[in-house]
Amino acid sequence: MKENSVPEATVARLPLYLRSLVDMTERAVATVSSEQLAEAAGVNSAKVRKDLSYLGSYGTRGVGYDVEYLIYQISRELGLTQDWNCMIVGVGNLGRALANYRGFGSRGFRVAALVDSDTAKIGGRVGDLEIEDFEDLERIAKERQVSIGIITTPAAAAQGAADRLVSAGIHSILNFAPALIQVPDDVSLRKVDLSIELQILSFYEQRKAAFDSVRRARRLTGSAARSTRP
Amino acid sequence: MKENSVPEATVARLPLYLRSLVDMTERAVATVSSEQLAEAAGVNSAKVRKDLSYLGSYGTRGVGYDVEYLIYQISRELGLTQDWNCMIVGVGNLGRALANYRGFGSRGFRVAALVDSDTAKIGGRVGDLEIEDFEDLERIAKERQVSIGIITTPAAAAQGAADRLVSAGIHSILNFAPALIQVPDDVSLRKVDLSIELQILSFYEQRKAAFDSVRRARRLTGSAARSTRP
DNA sequence: ATGGGCTTGTGAACGCATTCTCAAACCCGA
DNA sequence: TCGGGTTTGAGAATGCGTTCACAAGCCCAT
Q1: Which residues 84-123 of chain A have a CB within 8 Å of chain B?
Q2: By residue range, what is the domain housing residue B213?
């Protein structure tokens, strides 16, 4: 029943549930139904129940789920009962912003290293971290037990950064550079791409604009248009 | 055949194709097959053909697609033949990084305004833009014809920011704040959530670690384990 | 002009994820 | 202890997206 293979789509929602549940403990809520959790996380209740059922049977029929216990189970499933060290590769605007991001550590993630290949930047500081040489990436990753690499380089440098992270034994990478990068099968790669998100919004925005202009045209020629369909 | 409704999944991939195609023109490639484009975009060729077929029949059998023409068609479909003005709400580390982001404008997006509710920040500059008062959001949005709102506030302020953007007549929002926000049905909302991405990576990272330790254990107790199954 | 070699476009099959539905299980009050 | 009200957990149905497979169509060499 339990055991292997939580669907990807479910994994992607677990952090949402977790966040909602943490909010609830802060409001001293002890128990939550799938209906309530669904509302808080912005999904529907059947999905919540199915998702949680992949982790096990942690609810109580007629009652709901114990908030604390569910937080623990989801955290465990997501591997958040331990801390993870991250390395940021590429200290531009975005890399700097991420390095300063509070609430990064809130859920067990710690920026343990910043590297860049620009000699003008190496040796500089961001917060209480020093910017180190990209060439020392492997050594640094090993010393600090980095397990997650975050790429915030320009697009052209992204593949090189990924290659070095992989050769340093890292197999979880989050790529912010607007470029497709290739990694071996055993490496998890996720990407966040601002310009793609904007282009998707643009698509729907344009569609709305087109629809609106049709409506405007209809309103103007309303009677004529209607008269063509008696 | 053509007409309405390009599937969401396809819309999300069009920007990828577009990027690959633009790379190709820079390398003076005139024609591309679905196979080549698939390789460049990191998907498979059947998907490319199906996706492109939603836009129309722009390929030539036995030959492939004309790169320039395809760029034009995809750009048109995505609404990138016009410029879009964006407003960044919340000028913290991330907001500042986005405001400075070059290549933002590369594909027709322009940061037209920065607003924040912190009086200490208002009046300050980021690049050649002034930080303005959040309270003036509606007026600014109208004056500058902003159509996309980018929320980079703390989580607690995100819903308020969204509400104001909506009331300013904006119906495309990109949310970077780690919070669920509610918008009316006619508003497109996309979210980018760093901590969720990290938690997803953590899940798979943990799974790998668990698997590795099983392998290690097997190696140690290999013969004994095997002997239990004769 | 014809045939061979490619590549597109698309119907059909498949698979994964979501949603529906309801029996099983729990709590609580009488 | 029993019955009513509530909620989970999971089988079944549905829907969406991906992949397969191949006919249709194009180019080029002969």
Answers
A1: 84, 86, 92-94, 96-98, 100-101, 103-104, 106-109
A2: 197-227
